[in-house]
Structure formats: C-alpha cells, structure tokens
C-alpha cells in the first residue's frame, strides 16, 4: 500500500462504495466497503491541569487503487470539518455507515466528541460497557469503533503478533514535552503519528484477512469471533439447540441467583509464606531431603477443558425448596447431598453464620466480597487477601454444589437453607464442544508446526516460524474467547454520558429485567445460556482446589486461575501423575482429546512447566516473583508494567526477589493513572489561552505517570455499610 500525505485544507473525499447488509428489516443498513483509521496526539501544560489535541491523522481511500491518503491536521475543529465533508460526500446516516477504527477509542473520544457534537449538531450514539469504556460511537453514520476491543492488546503487540509490515516507532518522541496547536512540529513528530495510522491500517487489514472477514462481518469485540463460530455450530442442529436454549429460560429470580453465584477464578497465596522468600536449598536442609524442589504446573486449556469434560445444568431450573412457602419445614446439607447424588445441579441461597476455618487450610475458598454483599446486619470478618478465615454475623450467599463442597471441606459454620433451584446434570451442549474442539485443534496444530520448525534449526526470527507463531496466537486467542462468550450476561446495561461529562448507568427494576430476559430468549439470533459460564468457572475453581488438596495445603505456595507453584517431592509428583494418568484413561474412554498426525493431544492435564525454580516469594494476589537456576528473576505484579519508563523493566527495577515487600516503590514501571476534567470545569468546545497560546479544548483525559507502592493486603475489617459485589449486585 502506498500512502500520500494531504493536509485537511486540501482534502476532498472521494465517494465510497457501500455494501447493503442482509436483514429482514425494511430499512437495510449499508456499510462502506473500505474503512478509515484515526489517531490523535495530545499534550498537557506544565502542571497537567489542562490537555488538548495538538495533532491528528486518519487514512482514507484515494482515486487510485493501492493508494491511501493520510489526512492530517492540528486542531479538533479541523478534524470535525473533514468528517463533515466525508459525511456529506457519502450521504452518511444511521443506515449508511463508514467505520473509523481508533485504538483505545475511550481516550480519543474524550477529546474530540464535543467538537463533533457541535459540528454535526447531534449528540451521537454511545455503546459502552461502563464509564469511559466505549465499544463504539456513532456520529450520524461515521461509526468510531475501538480496535483495542478486537485486539485486546496494545497496537505495538498486535502488529507484532500479526507480523504486519510496519510497527510503531516506540520511543521516538518525548511525551513529557508540551506541544501546542501552533507549535512547530519536527520530522519525528509527524513520522510517529503517521506510522501509528499506517500500523492500525495494516493491523485491521490483516485481521480481516486471517478471519476471512469483510468490514460488515467484523465483530465489535474479540469474543465475537468465537461467538460466530459457535453460532454456526448451533445452527447445524437449529431446532434441537433452539429448544435447548429457550427451554432453559431464566426469569428474574433465577437470573439473580445466577448473578449472585457467579465468581471468577481463584488467585491466592499461602499466608504462611507471605512476604517470605522460600529457598530450595533451605528447604532441603530443613527437611534433610535433597529431592525437594519448587515446581510450577499449569492446566492445559483450563476453561475449554471444563466445557469439554465436565457437566453443566442441562435442563431448566425449577424451584425445589422455598422457606418462604415452607416456614415449618427445613432442609439440610444432607438433603442437598442427595440432590447431587441423583444427578442434579443446584443454586442454593443459604444463610451462613459464625464461620470458622479448619486447621491447616492455606487456600481459603470463601470470598470476602460475596459475604459482604449478602450480609444481613453487621459482619465481623477476619480475612486473608480477599478470602475469609473467620466470620461473625449472618450472610445470605448463593452457592452451587461445587462451591458448597469446598465451604464444607474448609469451614465449620451454622446455616439455614432459604431457597433452592435445581436442574438436571448433563454434558455441555454439542455446539459448544464442537467449537472448543475446533479451536483446540487449531491451537495444537499451530503449536506443533512452530515447535517442529524450531527443532529443524530455524530461529524465532525466521519468516516461517513467525508465521506459525502468529497463527498459534490467533488460535489460542479464539480458544480462550469461548469462555468470555459463555460468561456474558444476558442483561446489558446502557451507559450514557451527560452534557456535563457525568456518566450514568441505566437503572432497571425487576420488571425491566424480566422484560429484557424475555426479549433475550425470544430473539432468534441469541443462543447462549448464561449458566454455562457459571459452571465453567465453578469447575475450574474445583479443579484448582482439588490439585491444591492433592499437593497438600502445607506444600502449596501460590495459585492463579490455572497454575500452581508448590513445594515438590517425589511423593507429590507421583500423586499428580497418578491423577493425570486417571484423567488420560477417562479421556481415552470418553474421547476427550483431538488427534494430530496419529498422536492424541489431551484436554484436562496438569503439566509441568519445566522451570528449575530455586527461590519463590509472594506478597498478595497477582504479586509474586521467582528465581530460576540460571539466575533470572521472573515477576508478576498487578499495577506494575513489565516495561516502563526509561526502558526499565519490572524485574530490573525490583532488583532482588527480597525487595518484593511492603513499602517497595516502583517509579519507572509504576504505570499510569488517568485524570478527567474536574466536576464544574467547562467541557464544551471552546478556546482558552494557555501559556500564551490560543488552544481549542473541551474534555480531556490526562494519562499521568504514577508510582506503585507495594502493600501487604492481609487485614481484619468490620463491615457496616452496604457493598456492591458487582455492577449488578442490586439484583
């Protein structure tokens, strides 16, 4: 592709071609067959009290095939002017759209949308999943889409993974320098911005190519790819699958039970080792055993494995017990055990009181957040990094059979069962399993190709290896996206931004939610039952806990979703391999595998990462480090960048594993925070004099360098106020 530079003053857009989308509505939507990519550059004054756009650029097709314009300017009013020209030339509207990609739309939108609103005399339409979290913004047919939602990675990483011709010119310009809209920009300023637009153009083009898409078929988010494949598999046996989907319809109360049970993965460390460096040589001396090691194992494709090998609610939920209707009749935990033995899943609302953790439990299961949400009056909690050790007071929590299994194993408590819904157990539906198989095979095949190429003597820089690696990343991303699709709530809230910049979330009554649920199940294009995501995560938590228990709570060091660091002995390894062998035998019997060149690749295995770890230390969830025998320090620290300012990396800034402790401060890798306009400040499109320069500005979002100080998060808290565990906790 050849790019030609053209100033906004000289730019005259050509008329685009449009594709009419299929559909049953009388008013067919038309989408331009080409797209544009937009990037803006922003700056702040010395004290970072104001910020503005000082440079912008977007791509646009030209009259000549294989040639695109790079249209550039300095001010948001100029950007608005050329967008109006494009709009008028192509007669754009709600039903005739041009897609404009912006990487991290939420940021750029903040700066330019007030100018667009004024120029188009329209508020536009926002699709957002939260305040300052846009998916798209439609301004009278120019639909700005966030390419970050498709890539789920930085533009630099996306281009690298896609192996595009160009990549960002990282580090070329100094962002700390203040640039005004009338500042003279040097060659590097322009090169940097033009390259960003070219990179985004190439990434979108390559994304369309690898997924065999056109602009009008490209999904809005990364989970859309998996959703599309699953939907195709769903329609292969449409009537049977449609009956399955609608037959499991949730009403308001069943949905609220699902929302209250839903929980993510387990991420936790053994509190007996918190803020302590565990050293292999010292363990060997202490226990007088030279065969002690520290190991790290991961589950193979953890969430897909659950959907392939485990059960889920296969029928509609029906009310089995309601204390409100049976005031003189109680149910016991043994009654729930009988339900499980008879092949039922359940959602049970249970009042828990006076919970006490049992001796030796180093990975507590009970989430502080859930018990806070369900508290009846005051709760007195002794917590361990977001998990409960002891609790005084009553809390009503919704659990399924897997949750209750671990609460009973780990805690003593008093209880009263309030309400129970049950559903017959069954396998995950075929269309889900077929989608999992398809992407698991794709991931496994491309991984083998990459491995074989490297084994033949090629390096990671050779073109064939890079292409195999790219394909593997694509297939792996698609496989992982399946869970996100299954865990998406059928109730989506609308977020809007008021004229004063305040964000508002839609308020829904139970009647509103009931109506939305009915609309969801009645719509022919919908097909995913929400509870499938719930049981996926529940099984994943159960599997992690099972391995921790098998390894031994005393040997457990740290676990995160699908991986465990632990103190290893030959006895522990034998127990793990016996379980792996049992899983493989089950897989052979039930065909929980795919075959590549006659060799079976199994789901449901707990694999050794092969790292020779000599030291391990953690401080809290998502904050750990370890040293391997080659002396390399590996770090994972939430809120601390892998590579920060001055090209410093996280491990280098930490320096030593023993520095992973409360009070340590990361300066270069401390990340960033975003500062939005303070309340009451003028956010309309206007001109202000700043440092002697006339600046067009409106809203802003200043990305500010920050430091990160490490803290020890164990604490005891008395909760006395209402707390929302999630955005929908009011259900």
Layout of secondary structure:
Elements: E1 2-7, E2 18-20, E3 30-44, E4 51-61, E5 67-73, H1 76-90, E6 96-102, H2 105-120, E7 125-130, E8 133-139, E9 142-146, H3 147-151, H4 155-162, H5 187-210, H6 223-236, H7 238-247, H8 252-261, E10 267-269, E11 278-279, H9 280-287, E12 293-299, H10 302-309, E13 311-313, E14 318-322, H11 333-341, E15 344-357, H12 368-373, E16 379-384, E17 387-400, H13 401-410, E18 411-427, H14 430-455, H15 463-486, E19 495-497, E20 503-505, H16 510-522, H17 531-551, E21 556-560, E22 563-568, H18 570-590, E23 593-596, E24 599-602, E25 606-608, E26 613-620, E27 623-628, E28 633-637, H19 650-654, E29 665-666, E30 672-676, E31 686-690, E32 693-697, E33 701-705, E34 708-709, E35 716-719
Parallel strand pairs: 1-5, 3-6, 6-9
Antiparallel strand pairs: 2-3, 3-4, 4-5, 7-8, 8-9, 10-21, 11-26, 12-22, 12-25, 13-18, 14-18, 15-17, 15-18, 16-17, 16-35, 19-20, 21-22, 23-24, 26-27, 27-28, 29-34, 30-33, 31-32
Helix pairs in contact: 1-2, 4-5, 6-14, 6-15, 10-14, 10-17, 14-15, 15-17
Overview of this protein structure:
The chain is α+β, with helices and mostly antiparallel strands. Helices cover 35% and strands 29% of the residues. It contains 19 helices and 35 strands. Strands 1, 2, 3, 4, 5, 6, 7, 8 and 9 form a nine-stranded mixed beta sheet that branches. Strands 13, 14, 15, 16, 17, 18 and 35 form a seven-stranded antiparallel beta sheet that branches. Strand 16 (379-384) and strand 17 form a beta hairpin. Helix 10 crosses helix 17 (531-551) and helix 15 crosses helix 17 (531-551). The longest helix is centred in the middle third of the chain and has 26 residues, at 430-455. The chain is globular. The model is unreliable at 714-731 (pLDDT under 50).
């Amino acid at each position: 592709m050849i790019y030609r530079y053209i100033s906004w003053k000289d730019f005259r857009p050509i008329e685009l071609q449009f594709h009419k989308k299929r559909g049953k509505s009388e008013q067919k939507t038309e989408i331009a067959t080409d797209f544009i990519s937009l990037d803006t550059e922003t700056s702040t004054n010395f004290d970072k009290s104001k910020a503005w756009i000082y440079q912008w650029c977007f791509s646009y097709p030209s009259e000549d095939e294989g040639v695109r314009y790079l249209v550039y300017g300095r001010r948001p009013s100029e950007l608005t002017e050329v967008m109006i020209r494009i709009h008028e030339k192509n007669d754009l509207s709600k039903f005739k759209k041009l897609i404009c990609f912006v990487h991290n739309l939420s940021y750029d939108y903040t700066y330019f949308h007030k100018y667009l609103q004024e120029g188009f005399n329209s508020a536009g339409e926002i699709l957002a999943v939260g305040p300052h979290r846009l998916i798209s913004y439609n301004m009278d047919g120019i639909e700005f889409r966030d390419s970050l939602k498709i890539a789920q990675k930085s533009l630099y990483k996306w281009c690298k993974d896609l192996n595009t011709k160009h990549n960002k010119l990282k580090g070329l310009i100094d962002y700390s320098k203040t640039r005004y809209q009338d500042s003279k920009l040097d060659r590097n300023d322009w090169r940097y911005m033009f390259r960003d637009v070219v990179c985004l153009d190439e990434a979108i083009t390559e994304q369309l190519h690898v997924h065999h898409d056109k602009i009008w078929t490209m999904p809005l988010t990364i989970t859309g790819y998996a959703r599309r494949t699953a939907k195709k598999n769903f329609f292969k046996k449409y009537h049977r699958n449609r009956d399955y989907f609608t037959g499991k319809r949730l009403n308001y109360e069943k949905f609220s039970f699902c929302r209250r049970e839903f929980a993510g993965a387990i991420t936790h460390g053994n509190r007996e080792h918190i803020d302590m460096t565990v050293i292999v040589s010292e363990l060997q001396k202490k226990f007088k055993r030279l065969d002690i090691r520290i190991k790290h194992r991961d589950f193979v494709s953890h969430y897909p494995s659950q959907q392939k090998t485990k059960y889920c609610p296969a029928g509609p939920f029906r009310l089995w017990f309601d204390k409100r209707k049976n005031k003189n009749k109680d149910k016991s935990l043994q009654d729930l055990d009988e339900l499980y033995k008879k092949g039922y899943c359940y959602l049970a609302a249970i009042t828990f009181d006076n919970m006490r953790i049992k001796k030796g439990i180093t990975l507590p299961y009970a989430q502080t957040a859930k018990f806070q949400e369900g508290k009846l009056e005051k709760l007195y909690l002794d917590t361990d990094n977001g998990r409960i050790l002891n609790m005084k007071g009553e809390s009503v929590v919704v659990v399924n059979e897997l949750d209750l299994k671990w609460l009973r194993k780990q805690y003593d408590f008093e209880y009263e069962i309030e309400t129970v819904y049950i559903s017959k157990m069954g396998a995950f539906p075929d269309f889900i399993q077929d989608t999992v198989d398809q992407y698991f095979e794709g991931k496994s095949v491309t991984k083998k190709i990459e491995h074989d190429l490297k084994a033949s003597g090629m390096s990671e820089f050779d073109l064939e290896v890079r292409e195999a690696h790219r394909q593997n990343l694509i297939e792996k991303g698609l496989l992982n996206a399946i869970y996100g699709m299954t865990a998406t709530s059928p109730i989506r809230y609308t977020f809007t931004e008021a004229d004063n910049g305040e964000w508002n979330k839609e308020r829904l009554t139970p009647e509103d939610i009931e109506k939305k649920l009915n609309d969801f199940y009645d719509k022919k294009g919908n097909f995913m039952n929400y509870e499938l995501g719930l049981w996926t995560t529940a099984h994943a938590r159960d599997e992690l806990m099972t391995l921790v228990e098998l390894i031994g709570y005393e040997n457990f060091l740290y676990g995160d979703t699908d991986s465990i660091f632990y103190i290893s002995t030959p006895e522990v390894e034998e127990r793990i391999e016996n379980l792996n062998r049992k899983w493989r035998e089950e897989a052979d019997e039930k065909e929980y595998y795919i075959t590549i060149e006659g060799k079976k690749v199994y789901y449901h295995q707990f694999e050794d990462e092969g790292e020779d770890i000599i030291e391990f230390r953690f401080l809290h969830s998502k904050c750990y480090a370890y040293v391997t025998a080659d002396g390399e320090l590996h770090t994972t620290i939430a809120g601390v960048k892998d590579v920060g300012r001055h090209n410093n990396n996280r491990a280098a800034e930490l320096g030593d594993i023993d520095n992973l402790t409360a009070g340590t401060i990361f300066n270069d890798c401390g990340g960033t925070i975003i500062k939005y306009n303070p309340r009451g400040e003028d956010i309309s499109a206007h001109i202000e004099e700043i440092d002697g320069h006339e600046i067009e500005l409106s809203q802003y979002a200043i990305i500010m360098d920050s430091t990160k100080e490490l803290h020890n998060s164990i604490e005891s808290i008395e909760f006395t106020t209402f707390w929302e565990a999630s955005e929908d906790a009011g259900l």
